[in-house]
Amino acid sequence: MKINEVISYLDNRFPPALQESYDNSGFLLGDRNVEIKGVLVAVDLTLDVIEEALQYGCNLIVTHHPFIFSGIKRITTDSFMGRMLYMLLNNNIAVYAAHTNLDNLATGVNDILSKKLGIVDTKILSPMSDKLRKLVVYVPTIYASKVREAMFAVGAGCIGNYDSCSFNSNGKGTFRAMDGTSPFVGKVGELHTEVEERIEVVYPIMYEKSILRAMKSVHPYEEPAYDCLPLTNTWDRVGAGMVGLLPEPMPAIDFLKKVKEILGIPVIRHSDLCFDTVHTVAICGGAGSFLIGNAKAAKADIYLTGDLKYHDFQQAEGRIILADIGHFESEQFVKDLIYWEISKKFSIFVSRISTKNRGFVLYI
Questions:
Q1: pTM above threshold 0.85
Q2: By C-alpha distance, which of 128, 151, 157, 126 is closest to 19?
Q3: pLDDT at residue 326 above 90?
């Protein structure tokens, strides 16, 4: 079994098309055609993690944070990055990262953090608005059902909690087959009119290639007529942050103590406890100061995230409790999520969660 099979599966489960524009998720280093020996999962790539992979014979490391973000001008052992690259290349270890694409999934980083903290009835805090498209395709009426079913089978036509959604209308299409063609209907050189059905389906952008491939595979025309249209609709299944409810309102100080215990952190920096109790909780794993306004707009009582700066806390304005729970600490459970996804799919090689991986910020 090749590494590429694992990469293809991860690309399907954590579509790189959902990553932010500044990100660098996906297959970062290695030969995808090498036989897979084992997978090691970590939040960050470090020399200790690479040594751990060597110890256990793992030749693929899957991390949350990409270790390559910007251009690399030289690879030498004089730098931290150079030493890692040198070790990886010399030992034929491949690296894959699932970063903001995993942050933006409704079943990703914030979902598992919500579950750990007991937050229920969750929804995306800031849904994305540029990840949906509409496919319009024209099909001879007798083939319309077959084309619809093929597209539905690979992810087209899902709107909220409904699937197999489409709009269909009848009309007449015209075309003239030119020399060198083999028309399904009509004759070469003659203008032909055919009763056709116009099928419209909405789909996530990351499924586009599969949907077009499925449509073309059953469409009777050798040159199907179709349009792929960008949509500005928000998609509530992807986006940044999450907001939900505690099963019961809880004293703010007790909730923060619970968060400390579950995340295993000695310190939580927070703004004024402007509410005695909290019920609606907003979260964003990693660095989430950019969502403070969204958390307030969602009328959250408290917002948990990492990397808050001094002046970020001023934005609380007595309307919300802001709490910095640490970058690594808020994303630590992503290792379990990635490991579980790989383990449930593949059983012919060993997958491990790194025991050497820890946050770079320590506390006394």
A1: yes
A2: 128
A3: yes
